[in-house]
Design a protein that fits this description.
Number of helices: 9
Number of domains: 1
Strand order of the largest sheet: 1-11-12-8-7-2-3-6
CATH superfamily: Class I glutamine amidotransferase (GATase) domain
Number of strands: 12
Distance between the termini: 34 Å
Strand content: 15-25%
Amino acid sequence: MKRRDFVAMGASASALALTDTLIAGSLEEPGLMRRPVVKGAPLEAPASGKIKVAVAIANHATVIDFAGPWEVFQDVMVPSRGNNHSEQMPFELFTVAASADPIRATAGLHIIPDYTVDDSPQPDLVVVPALQGSPALHEWLAAVAPETDVTLSVCTGAFQLARAGLLNGQIATTHHDFYDAFAEQFPEIQLERGLRFVENEKISTAGGLTSGIDLSLRVVERYFGRSVAQRTADYMEYTSTGWKA
């Protein structure tokens, strides 16, 4: 059985300073997270066509930070959007890097970017994992974020959003190992500790590693409702309820 057929069957059955390199390499400690801060309104999903998701990559990108959200968005299925699988799968994903050069993510994963910051399409969503940042990445984030529905970071990707000026006047979180570093570098940003994620209207930040899955499921819920997000989590066999506000 094709995996998308399985998802469709499930839908019917539902009835319905520290260096960026060091920052990118840290690990999540379980059991520290409280319920998220949720301040975003529902998002208007297009009746047809794709929701474009740009996933920023660079050397030392933490794999689960971007692979977790990637899996969430690519597994979403909304049968009411059309008669074929392509129409029912609403998200289109692609990677964006500062240059066209291949990058090495954590443990040496080799990735060739789909686009560079100079030729990327305007995304509807942006995912920024823990990675080795650059002025080119920060400039691109500052340019595209105002036109996105949500720009989100995972783990110490929050440092990159802050360096791009996107967290000014916002509340935010990051990986728990880097709370103090974040607070010291960005005293003007209200840091929330011990949360799976912090959701503002257009800018959201997740804690470490698997928290990005929770935040991505919350974005799915904002677009398509809780039943679609839950069906996606069920398909992924993801049992955390940290995404539920």
